[in-house]
Amino acid sequence: MPRGGSRPVSGPPPDPNALRRNRLSDQAGWTMLPAEGRAGEPPAWPLVDVHPREWDLWRELWTRPQAVAWEQFGLELEVALFVRKLTDAERPGSSVELQKVMRQFLDGLGLSVQGMRRNRWRIAPQESEQDQAAEQSPRPPARRSARDRLKVVAHGDGS
Fold first, then answer.
1. Distance of CA 128 to the CA centre of its chain
2. Is 33 helix (H, G, I), strand (E, B) or coil?
3. Average pLDDT, whole number, for the chain?
4. Distance between CA 30 and CA 116 in Å, rounded?
5. Where are the alpha helices (DSSP H) in the chain?
6. Is the pLDDT score of 133 beyond 60?
7. Could you read off the pLDDT of 116-129 as tens digits, one per residue?
8. Phi and psi torsions of 86, nearest 5°
């Protein structure tokens, strides 16, 4: 095992809200993923044979926001391998080593918070119906401040 030096995922993951924004590593920017996820049918299953549990996971994963990036980068095989190993990890008595591999898959595919940061992916804020209604209705007039409501009274005037 190597000692010292940098490793591919050493150090904290990038933070889009960091105060220092002048680092060279920040120039690459962040990819905004749609909050509503990926639309349409999932890609064809790329592995041999698909089990019912695998198919359910496959269909669900391809509706997530991360699936937009997976499709862009052609990660169908990686997602399928993740699904296959996830179904293995769900079985009672699965090995700790398999669970470690699953954690690496989660990070690599951006399915964990740390993985989203490392991939520099952010999910766009989803507008709620309340936000849309608030944008459409006029805002009430601003209340006068306490200072504006104070009346200047001349010295000795009791009114």
1. 17
2. strand
3. 82
4. 10
5. 52-61, 66-73, 76-90, 96-108, 113-118, 129-136, 146-149
6. no
7. 999 999 999 987 64
8. -65, -40
Residues in the chain: 159
Whether 82 maps to a domain, the answer reads: yes
| DSSP assignment letter at 122 | E
Q: Which helix (H) or strand (E) is 32 found in, with range? A: strand 31-33
User: What is the domain extent for residue 115?
Assistant: 74-124
Does residue 80 sit within a domain?
Answer: yes
What does pTM read for this prediction?
Answer: 0.66
Distances (CA, A) of 67 to 38, 39, 64, 111, 116: 6, 9, 5, 10, 12
Cβ atoms 120, 66 nearer than 8 A: no
Burial of 113 (0-12, 13-18, 19+ CB in 10 A): exposed
Q: Please indicate, yes or no, if residue 26 is contained in any of the structural domains.
A: no
Total number of domains in the chain: 1
Residue 145, in any domain of the structure: no
Instruction: Decide which of 145 and 29 is more confident.
Output: 29
